[in-house]
Design goal:
It comes from Asticcacaulis biprosthecium C19. One of its GO terms (molecular function) is oxidoreductase activity. It holds the Pfam family OCD_Mu_crystall. With 306 residues, the chain is of the alpha/beta class. It folds into 2 domains: 111 residues, ornithine cyclodeaminase, domain 1 (2-Layer Sandwich), CATH 3.30.1780; 185 residues, Rossmann fold, CATH 3.40.50.720. It contains 11 helices and 14 strands. α1 runs parallel beside α3. The longest helix has 20 residues. The chain starts with a strand and ends with a helix.
Amino acid sequence: MQILSARDLIERLPYDVLVRDLPALLLRKTDSPQRHVHTVHQAGEPDATLLMMPAWTEGFGGVKIVNVTPGNAARSLPAVTASYLLFDAVTGEHRALLDGGELTARRTAAVAAIAADRLALGHAHRLLLVGSGRIASELAFAYRAVRDIRTVEVYSPTHANAEKLAHRLRDHGFAATATEDLAYAVQRADIVACATLSHTPLVKGEWLAQGQHVALIGGYTLDMREADDAAMARASIWVDSHAALSEAGDLAGPLSHGIIRFEDIRGTLPDLCREARVERREDVITLFKSVGEASQDLAAAAIALR
C-alpha cells in the first residue's frame, strides 16, 4: 500500500491539473452516501466534529475520516485533521493512505476555483479572503489557475493571522494586504471567498453588487453562517451538492424562513462542470456554497495515484 504525504500531494495535485481534470471525474457515476457527522463533547472545549465520508465508483473507492476541532485555534494547531484510505472496489485491497488534510484543502480550493471559472467575470482579478486558516491559505493559488488574480485582501477576526497569510501570499507574487474593514473590502472585490468556522454572518447583502462572485466554503453545519439572509436573497445560488441544502446554515436557515426557495437554487457542481460558463454573470451576484462531498475526495485521490 502506498502512503502519500502532504508533500507528495502538493507535487501530484497542482491546481492547474486539478481544475482541468476534476470536472470530468466529477461527472462519473459515483455512489457517495450522505456523510456520517458526529459531535464530540469534551469538558472545557468547544464541541468537535467527527466526519466519515465514503464513496465508490467503477474500479475504486475510498473513505475519509475527519476530525474538526475548533479548540485547536487556541493551541496554534490546525482545526482539521484527516486521513483518506483509497481501496480497490473489486478486490477490497487497500491501495493507498493519503494525507487527508492536504487532500481536503486542495480539492476544496480546486472545487471553488472550478465554480468561479464558470461564475466569476472573466476579468476578475481582485480577491477577498474572509478567513486565514488552512483552506483560506490555498484559495488564492487555486483561483489563480482560472483567473488573473493579482490583488488579494485578507480579513480575519484575528488580525495578526490575516497579516501572516498576507505576508505568505506576497512571497508568492500576490499584491496582498490584511484589512480590518470588511465592508469596504467586500465592496472592492471581484471574488469574495469565505473559509471560516463562523457561527454569525460575516458578509452582508447590502455590501454586494452585480457582477461579484461569492464563495461560501467554511460552514458545514446548521448553526454556521458566513453570509446574512440579505446576501442569500440577492444572489444567484449554486451548490456543490444537494446535501448543502440540509446541512449548511447559510442555506437551511433562509430556506426554512422563506427567504429563498428550493427552486431558487440554480444547480450543482456537476451542472457547472458541464458548462463552459454561465451566461449573464455581469447582471447578478453569483454565489457558490460548498459543504464538501465524498466524490470530490475520491476524484482528487484518483488523480494523485495516476
